[in-house]
Amino acid sequence: MEDMEQKSTVFVIDADPIWGNNIRNTLEIAGFQVKVFDSAETFLEEYEPGRPSCLVLSAELGGGMTGLQLQDELAQQEIKPSIIFTSAESNVANSVKAMRAGAVDFLQKPFQDVELLARVQEAIDLNQFERQRHQQASFVSNRIDKLTRREKEVMDLVLEGLTNKEIASMLGLSHRTVELHRSRVMSKMKADSIVHLVKMTSEHQL
Fold it and tell me: What would you measure as the largest C-alpha separation in the chain, in angstroms?
């Protein structure tokens, strides 16, 4: 199911109108929502950061920002779109750079429709996964923000594996007070167990 009930958009960015239209037709026939742009600049004028999307991006965008430069620009965003590069040239250096920067694939023109469709679906799935992961991290971060300073101290020590008795001794609190703080931590964090608490905080590096 699409995250936040939004359907993913495939943005096709290609200076060659023939290629741009051909890619759009192929994707729309397969049921994808598509928008085509002839430059990185026109794309950026309309793009909404965080929108569920992937890019089918030509490495050759003459006259302005290149495909690789656009990839660098989008990499600064909190949630960046998945990118599939296309190229009419066999440029190993560019393909290696794009892939190292997180591109899903680097397709050499001409490519088969089935190959394009498979890569686009992979890119959309990856983008949805990253959006969901970011959303869950935000939920966990918001829960932590609701903890008091003392509750955060207790949680940190619980995550280190200390017992209630050890935490009480370290913080100069009674055993009963530690139990109360620990119970409130579990409630506010919506954690079913210590294992669950460790998992949710470690997964999101919090």
Answer: 74
